[in-house]
Amino acid sequence: MPVLDDLTRPAKDDDVVGGVPARLVAAPASTEEAAALIRAAQDLAVVVRGAGTKIDWGVPPRELDLIIDTHRISGVVEHAAGDLITVVRAGTPLRDIDLGDQVLALDGPAGATVGGTVATGTSGPRRLHYGGVRDLLIGITVVRPDGKVAKAGGKVVKNVAGYDLGKLFTGSYGTLGLITECAFRLHPRPRAASYVVAKAPPADAARVREARVAPAAIEYDSATGELAVLIEGTAEGVRERSLKIAELIGGDVADGPPGWWGVDPWPEGGIAMKLSVPLSKVPDLVDGGDPVRGSAGTGVLYAGAAGITEVERLRGLCVRLGGHAVVLTAPPPVRDILDMWGPVPGLALMRRIKDQFDPGHRFAPGRFVGGI
């Protein structure tokens, strides 16, 4: 078809998703161009790619004809400073979003894009104070698998029309369609920030929360045994609160974070896990000697597992503690025989949603939980 001929190129050796090579790659430059591409690709299995920082997360696709690369769908569409709102195209790297005195409080790996961050539902250390992707996302534009453009939410924080569509696409791993634009709520850029780092047990995170010092993040690293607290605000307020926390947990105040802050606790090519437990159970989770790192303030942590036995042990521990665990990525020999997602409530409903949005199961086929 002319549209496919105009917009696609033959895949190269590195155009691979989870070890599965693509046949074609397309990089549309707008929502309209992407819609035309998807309408013309109705017989093709599709995977969406942003910067590729998390392209190996999830299960490899059952089949892959076309990679839609979003790097040309980029840039800030609008910044309504008075309303604390911005509209950003999906292929925009998070690090490229400069909004002056305001900030989009999403953390991600170097190069991570807006669309990829929403599609995987990833949030970094500052989730404690600012909320995660679902909390910050107030509007979304997507191209459905049938090529139709759909919009939900709006550019005003109080506008909740169609809000659930944004939540539905958050963490959907590209199985429901292509995200092209996102509207986010913003926050004033902090004038100052400092970190308090202490050799302290994760249980001390509760003392920090109870001290009413409004931490932006509370992170723990089991390898070093360090608890680190981020404080943001005015220079005077940051200084006072930092000293209070330092006295409380016996730490030191620093201008920058410890070296492990925001760094994945697994080696390249290793088994990566996301662990979620109630706050009161974080100490029980990290006391097992595993390389665990993450938020002692929200109960979302990450771990590197040595093998399948350790995956199952960590997963069982999380379940006993009232939480859950998923494998984000793993080397092929492990991934091919491992249940990456584990037990997930509501799977039948998720299947029905997939059938409604993508009856042909063309978008990221098999990448998500339960083979969705």
* CATH architecture title of the largest domain: 2-Layer Sandwich
CATH class of the largest domain: Alpha Beta
Q: Considering DSSP H and I runs of 4 or more, what fraction of the residues is helical? A: 25-40%
Strand content: 25-35%
Structure summary, number of beta strands: 21
The separation of the N and C termini measures: 28 Å
CATH topology of the largest domain: Uridine Diphospho-n-acetylenolpyruvylglucosamine Reductase, domain 3
Total individual domains: 4
General shape: globular
Strand order within the widest beta sheet: 17-14-16-15-19-20-18-21
| Sheet having the most strands | 8 strands, antiparallel
Computed over alpha carbons, the radius of gyration is 21 Å
Q: By helix and strand content, what is the structural category? A: alpha+beta
Low-pLDDT segments, ≥5 res: none
Mean pLDDT: 93
Question: Helical region count?
Answer: 12
How is the topology of this model organized?
Elements: H1 2-7, E1 8-10, E2 16-17, E3 20-21, E4 24-26, H2 31-40, E5 46-49, E6 66-69, E7 76-80, E8 85-89, E9 102-103, H3 114-120, H4 127-130, H5 133-136, E10 137-143, E11 149-153, H6 163-169, E12 178-185, E13 187-188, E14 192-199, H7 204-210, E15 217-221, E16 226-233, H8 235-249, E17 252-254, E18 271-276, H9 282-286, E19 292-295, E20 300-305, H10 308-320, E21 324-329, H11 332-335, H12 347-357
Parallel strand pairs: 4-6, 5-6
Antiparallel strand pairs: 1-4, 2-3, 7-8, 8-12, 9-13, 10-11, 10-12, 14-16, 14-17, 15-16, 15-19, 18-20, 18-21, 19-20
